[in-house]
Amino acid sequence: MYFGRIVMASSWTRGLCVAAALFAASDASAQNFPAHPITLIIPFAPGGSTSIVGRAIADKMSETLGEKVIVDNRPGAGGTVGTRAVAKSAPDGYTIGLGYTGTLAIGPTLYAKAGYDPRKDFAPIGMIGHSPNSLVVHPSFPAKTVAELIAYAKANAGKVNFGSAGAGTASHITGEYFAKVAGITLVHVPYKGTGPALVDLIGGHIPMAFAPVPATHANIVGGQLRGIAVTSLMRTSLLPDVPTVAESGLQGFDASLAYGLVAPVGTPRPIIDRLNGELRKALESDDVRKRLQQDGTDPAPGSPEDYAAFIDKDETKWAQIVKSSGAKEE
């Protein structure tokens, strides 16, 4: 009996030693982090809101971290391809991802094989900010208001196309949500990112699109696009003359977007804390705040726990919208 206690104590002691060694190694790794460039995977093509927001953060964090944060655009399947790549990366802090409403809150419900769980497969780093979507049309499109658009779509049932950043993205589901609430039929035309969709819209190949304000603002101001409405409950200061969908007759309509940074689950907490600290510094800097606000994104710095709670709440909300809209994987 006495011998057994000695063996058990010895085993317990070795366990403590191993745990201590692992903690020390993790702590040392965090203290030396980063030792080489970090890759930020943005799961959409260049030119969209995720790239605008992600590059602003990457540029500033490159300065404060002392190592380059390299942007890697990996579009496909509504952003799930790039997001899945983040989830399956080594949990060492050197591969992180731009979290987004379309990928963390919509994709898991819309796609049967998204390949990741937004609550279990990521270590949230922190929130970046919020932005409304916008409903934009080509200047030649006859409708100038939400009411006129609804009337036109009813008179031309099944003949009005709308572009999005891809099947399953926030812009896609927002369009389906809008059509359902308005009682109209719209034909979805998916692209591999907001940028390509807006190029076709400006070129007159499609009549309308739902796209984030950061990506449409300059073209609305320049007259290449007409802003019909924004999808948040409040107007954006960037486009003060563009009404919300809610105030245009569809009461309670709200389809705002959110951006943040995530790492693969298992990334050591000291590294997460370091990245969160640098992200918050970036969001507190005047140049980044100005850069984001000029593109319609309101900074919302917070802790990893704050972002984890938001992801949980946002996924619950959008899962219900996906189901009620009747949207299907394309």
Automatic annotation (TrEMBL):
Keywords: Signal. The keyword Transmembrane does not apply. Residues 1-30 form the signal peptide. Residues 286-307 are annotated as: Disordered. InterPro entries: BUG, Bug_dom1. Pfam families: TctC. Belongs to the UPF0065 (bug) family. This is Tripartite tricarboxylate transporter substrate binding protein.
